[in-house]
Specification:
The complex is a heterodimer of chains A (338) and B (107). By secondary structure, chain A is α/β, with parallel strands linked by helices. Chain A has 7 helices and 21 strands. In chain A, strands 1, 2, 5, 6, 7, 8 and 20 form a 7-stranded mixed sheet that branches. A 5-stranded parallel sheet of chain A has the order 10-17-11-12-13. Chain A has a 3-stranded antiparallel sheet with strand order 14-15-16, with no helix packed on it. In chain A, strand 12, helix 5 and strand 13 form a beta-alpha-beta unit. In chain A, helix 1 runs parallel beside helix 3, helix 1 runs parallel beside helix 6 and helix 4 packs across helix 5. Chain B has 3 helices and 5 strands, in the order ββαβααββ. In chain B, the strands form 2 sheets. Chain B has a 3-stranded mixed sheet, with helices on one face. Chain B has a two-stranded antiparallel sheet with strand order 3-4. Classes of the chains: A alpha/beta (338), B alpha+beta (107). At the A-B interface, strand 18 of A face loops of B.
Chain lengths: 338, 107
């Protein structure tokens, strides 16, 4: 059991800056994120796209913003728990017991939900027949590439994941790559490589086709693909892999007894607390009159939620407002020597 | 202003007036029409405002896809030749009478 003042769910920009504010006011926190890396939507959806509306930063990419925020909270040495998802929140006296999918347990006075629009999960094939093979021979990620050795696989998708895996796995497997159109959105070098491998008959590339049905009695035997004009082609295969990026799902958050408005959590704008005492929601996942889904709004919300957390984490102390420019206590916390 | 008809996957129809300058996605979200999630808020980054334009005349009449829209549509749930991202269709008088079909789900 990890004891802390605050568990922050979500390590996107909003969660990261809230962690900063928590550190500044002298509290501790632990951050949990479903992704395998820090940065949330910024890193998953648009790492290379420039952002132009961060105050005092005329232009930066999602990746740069993330790196700077991580740098900014470095002095506090907070722990990140990545590739893990909070499953359960339970109230225990004045504290919250937080359980994750991997089995970690936290005890905290506060929980800050900075979960964007939920957790990122792989998009799946739009066909019913794929469900019974899901996780066995129909896969949306590669955990152990050795299982594909000397097997045949059909990979669907046109982005970097599909191309990179097609190239890599073609070393030791028979790979067919299927994409719905002629153009691939992956890196030019990968697209070129795929073309070369196709010319050498190492990979079989089929464009303008999409998945129709997976077939097999017990174990997977083949996959039907359909052309734009509706012709069906059957390919014998041991595995079918789909790489269509990630989608955000609200997931277990919906089961925690919080008031919900569509996929968002209503909060008060004084401290961004939800209908549950000690549970706060900030960033894209919270809603209130006038809410703007901007990163800068998330920063503001995180700063106020951090102060809200102080009240429960230090009930016998009075929170005193201080500026970072003037407070020697804050400078100590930041490890700044004068 | 354009009157736009959104047809849910189950066939339920919603006819709403959408002011010029808003996107077809915003027209749905602001009128609480289910079936368009728009997780990223209109940034062409998530493919959860995916719609079909079943009428070929309308599909041709709409402003062409810009760079990147097809890349995102690759990731949409069950994309077809007549797929569009509704956040990329900006409403004008010319769009009066547009009909968009919503997919079974957005992901």
């Amino acid at each position: 059991m990890i004891k802390t003042d605050v568990v922050i769910i979500g390590a996107g920009p909003t969660g990261l800056f809230c962690a900063h504010q928590i550190g500044i006011i002298g509290l501790k926190c632990e951050l949990v994120d479903n992704l395998d890396k820090i940065g949330g939507q910024c890193i998953e959806l648009y790492p290379d796209k420039p952002i132009y509306d961060i105050p005092a930063v005329p232009e930066c990419t999602g990746e740069e913003l993330t790196n700077n925020l991580v740098q900014q909270i470095k002095p506090f040495n907070f722990n990140f728990h990545l590739s893990d998802r909070v499953q359960e929140l339970k109230n225990n006296n004045d504290k919250w017991i937080v359980k994750t999918l991997s089995g970690k347990e936290f005890e905290a006075y506060n929980v800050v939900i900075a979960g964007g629009v939920g957790s990122f999960e792989p998009r799946k094939f739009p066909i019913k027949s794929a469900e019974k093979f899901d996780g066995k021979s129909v896969l949306y990620s590669v955990k152990d590439k050795n299982i594909f050795k000397d097997k045949s696989l059909v990979i669907f998708g046109g982005g970097d994941s599909a191309l990179d895996w097609a190239i890599e796995l073609s070393n030791s497997s028979k790979v067919t790559l299927v994409h719905r159109r002629d153009e691939f959105r992956g890196a030019p070098a990968s697209v070129q490589k795929i073309k070369e491998l196709n010319d050498k008959n190492v990979i079989d590339v089929i464009t303008k086709h999409s998945i129709e049905e997976v077939k097999g009695n017990g174990s997977l035997e083949s996959v039907d693909i359909k052309s734009e004009s509706g012709e069906i082609k059957n390919i014998k295969t041991d595995y079918v892999l789909g790489f269509f990026g990630l989608i955000m799902k609200l997931g277990p958050i919906a089961d925690w007894g919080l008031n919900l408005d569509k996929k968002t959590i209503p909060v008060n704008t004084e401290n961004f607390e939800t209908n549950k005492k000690g549970i706060f929601a900030i960033g894209d996942i919270c809603s209130y009159p006038g809410k703007l889904k901007l990163i800068l709004s998330g920063f503001h919300e995180g700063a106020l939620a951090a102060r809200g957390c102080f009240r429960y984490a230090r009930p016998d102390e009075k929170y005193r407002f201080e500026f970072t420019t003037a407070s020697s206590t804050i400078k100590d916390r930041l490890g700044i020597k004068e | 202003m354009a009157n736009i008809k959104y047809i849910e996957f189950n066939g339920k129809e919603h006819k709403v007036n959408v002011p010029n300058g808003l996107s077809v996605m915003e027209g749905a979200v602001q009128n609480n029409i289910p079936g368009i999630d728009a997780d990223c808020g209109g940034g062409m980054s998530c493919a959860t405002c995916h719609v079909y334009i079943n009428d070929d005349e309308w599909f041709k009449k709409l402003p062409k896809k810009e760079m990147g829209e097809d890349d995102m549509l690759d990731q949409a749930y069950d994309p077809k030749l007549n797929s569009r991202l509704s956040c990329q269709i900006i409403v004008s008088e010319e769009l009066d009478g547009l009909v968009v079909q919503l997919p079974e789900k957005q992901g």
